[in-house]
Amino acid sequence: MSEETLTETESAVLNALESSDKSLRPGDIAESTGLESKLVSKTIASLKKKGLVYSPKRCYYDVSKE
Questions:
Q1: Could you give the domains of the chain?
Q2: Please, what's the b/e burial string for 13-43 (b: 16 or more CB within 10 A of its CB; e: otherwise)?
Q3: Model pTM greater than 0.85?
Q4: Using one digit for the tens of pLDDT, what is the confidence trace for 5-43?
Q5: What are residue 35's phi and psi, to 5 degrees?
Q6: Which candidate, 55, 52, 65, 59, places its Cα nearest to that of 12?
């Protein structure tokens, strides 16, 4: 999946996850990106469908290693 097919919000969430050395909660991502928590949660769901993000444990997310 190329970066070009991502929305600005998806890119922001993905960048926040990539720049972190640990899995993040939606609230952590919202804080670091300045986005609303609800929007972050919706965006994570979208990124999960695209296979770019996974959940290593409940309520935590990380970038898929592909």
A1: 3-63 (1.10.10.10)
A2: bbbbbeeeeebbbbebbbebbebeeebbbeb
A3: yes
A4: 899 999 999 999 999 999 999 999 999 999 999 999 999
A5: -90, 160
A6: 52
